[in-house]
């Protein structure tokens, strides 16, 4: 799984954007079943993780 995380960071770097899921409170499988997770760039259910 760490490779997925590193790959995601590399993609973010080249795309110049970040994904909402990275700091979303629902970014785990039992809380979010949206197909765009973990790479959502817009999401009506986004809630910032504290
Ligand atoms: S609720 Fe939206 S922003 Fe949060 S993890 Fe799911 S898809 Fe990503």
Please tell me about this protein's structure.
- The chain has 50 residues and is mainly alpha-helical.
- It has one domain (1-50).
- 28% of the residues lie in helices and 0% in strands.
- The chain is built from one helix and no strands.
- The radius of gyration is 11 Å and the shape is globular.
- The model has no long low-confidence stretch (mean pLDDT 87).
- Bound molecules: iron/sulfur cluster (SF4).
Labels describing this entry:
1 helix; binds iron/sulfur cluster; mainly alpha; 50 residues
List the helices and strands and how they pair.
Blueprint: H1 2-15
Bound molecules: iron/sulfur cluster.
Iron/sulfur cluster (SF4) is lined by residues 20-21, 24, 26-27, 32, 34, 36-37, 40, 43, 45-46.
Shape, per Cα inertia axes: globular
Order of helices and strands: H
Helix percent band: 25-40%
Number of structural units classed as domains: 1
**DSSP E strands, number:** 0
Largest sheet: none
Subunit organisation of the chains: single chain
Portion of residues in beta strands equals under 5%
Span between N and C termini? 22 Å
| Poorly predicted sequence stretches spanning 5 or more consecutive residues | none
**Ligand set:** iron/sulfur cluster
Helix count equals 1
Coarse structural class = mainly alpha
pLDDT average, as an integer?
87
Integer-rounded radius of gyration: 11 Å
């Amino acid at each position: 799984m760490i490779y997925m995380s590193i790959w995601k960071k590399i993609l973010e770097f080249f795309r110049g954007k970040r994904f909402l899921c990275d700091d979303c409170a629902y970014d785990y499988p039992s809380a979010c079943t949206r197909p765009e997770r973990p790479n959502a760039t817009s999401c009506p259910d986004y809630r910032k993780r504290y």
